[in-house]
Amino acid sequence: MPVRSTIMDTNSFRAEHAEALPADIRRLTQRRSDVLGESYRLFYREPVHLVKGQGQYLWDAEGKQYLDVYNNVASIGHCHPAVIAAVHDQMQKLNTHTRYLHERILDYTDELLATLPAEIDRAMYMCTGSEANDLAMRVAYAYSGGTGIIVSQEAYHGTSYLTSGASPALGSGQPLAPTTRLVSPPDRYRVDAEDLGAWFANEIQRQIDDLAAHGIKFAGFLADSIFSSDGVLPGPPGVLKQAIDVVHANGGIFIADEVQPGFARTGDAFWGFARHGVVPDVVTTGKPMGNGIPVSGLLAKREVLAAFSDQVPYFNTFGGNPVAMAAAQAVLTTIKEENLQAHSQKVGAKVLAELAALQKTHECVGDVRGAGLFIGFELVSERQNKTPDKALALDVIEALRQERVLTSVAGPHGNVLKLRPPLAFQEADIDWLVGALDRCLTRLGR
User: Burial, 349: exposed, middle or buried (Cβ in 10 Å; 0-12, 13-18, 19+)?
Assistant: First the structure.
């Protein structure tokens, strides 16, 4: 039997839950299984039937309102009017592919590159983060002449053939590529190291050496700088710098997967990697870029991208289409006009402080960490030994669902609540989130 996927199966509906469901929900889950097959997963023992969203809120088919504390797809808020207007306007004019001239893709690219270090001056567009990371791996192969890719222990980078082979979070049912190596993440809570950055750099070097010992040339290090699937590990600012120096010293490139920490999410900087004072060779983006419209991108240093693009033509039918670019442009404009980076930093700090206060009354709260509106809330059965408590985390997730707060879990043990609301989340929502969590932990006797 394959090991369950940490990101797909930990907080999911399973067939044994069906008998306890209301009749209408049971019919929908059965119908879904009948026509969509068995690969898909639903959240919760009692799945939520959502029909409407606005900002940080969602509503189900019965009209119940929920607080969304998980969704970074609608990064600036569900059904944001600026995105709706931009998409509607462009759809009425033209939507086609990138083999015709169109100003929209060029104007957006100029604006997007202006948010990045000057060394990163080229862009390519796709539809999903999986496609962006897949292309980034191909670029790494072309530039380095190698195929060895290092990722973190519970990384998730996509569902394509290449990216699934570098996504251990998908579980053992999806085998890793023989050219993939895993590195323990810089977990300040669990790693006892005087210099966490030096410790992590050494871990990277160990895996590069292992690749070489097996006759595999190192190509690159692919990482989400907040290590979200590993349990949301922002680490101290700068913790990645020594590791990236090691990557470059060994002829590889650093691919910053910014699908989750990018676009003002971490508050400290527009891009997650910028918290660490490093300049990636390639940056990939996805879901938050279009606020629900499928669009993704690869941004790179010209000399790195040239190793691939000067040799291989690339075409993505829907990547960079005018409607997707209109959505992306509206997102970027909204982040600037609504000052969402500063908002994420300010509100995120208040959420973090309120959640940390729960440690005083609930012994099961082992650690609270985060950057901006991206927070990990780790639950343990024994605080001194930091023993992960997956069962409690799953019970808390279900209890929060009854309090109409939606989130999920992360980490190799499934014991970290992954709190990542749309950037529309406000200070007024903190009481709903923290109060619900407090009540749930109290009810569960923890």
Answer: middle
Q: What is the DSSP letter of 314?
A: -
CA distance 180 to 176: 6
Q: DSSP letter at 282? A: E
Examine the domain organization and report whether 68 and 121 are in the same domain.
Answer: no
Phi, psi (deg, nearest 5) at residue 272: -60, -40
Q: 202 and 68 in one domain?
A: no
Tokens of 425: 């989340």
Q: What is the pLDDT of residue 25?
A: 82
CATH number at residue 328: 3.40.640.10
Contacts of 100 (CB under 8 A, 6+ apart): none
What pTM value is reported for the model? 0.94
CA-based nearest residue to 434, from 445, 415, 421: 421
Asked if residue 333 and residue 344 are part of one domain, the reply reads: no
Residue ranges in the chain modelled with pLDDT below 70: 1-9, 12, 14-15
Output the pLDDT for position 445.
82
For tokens 């605080």, what's the residue? 383
For residue 78, the 8-state DSSP code is: B
Write out the residue range of the structural domain in which residue 64 sits.
48-76+340-443
Instruction: Provide the token pair at 423.
Output: 């950037």
pLDDT of residue 4: 61
What tokens were used for 197?
């950055």
Laid out side by side, the sheet with 253-257 consists of 120-126, 296-301, 282-285, 253-257, 218-223, 148-152, 180-183
What is the reported pLDDT for 2? 44
pLDDT score recorded for residue 1:
38
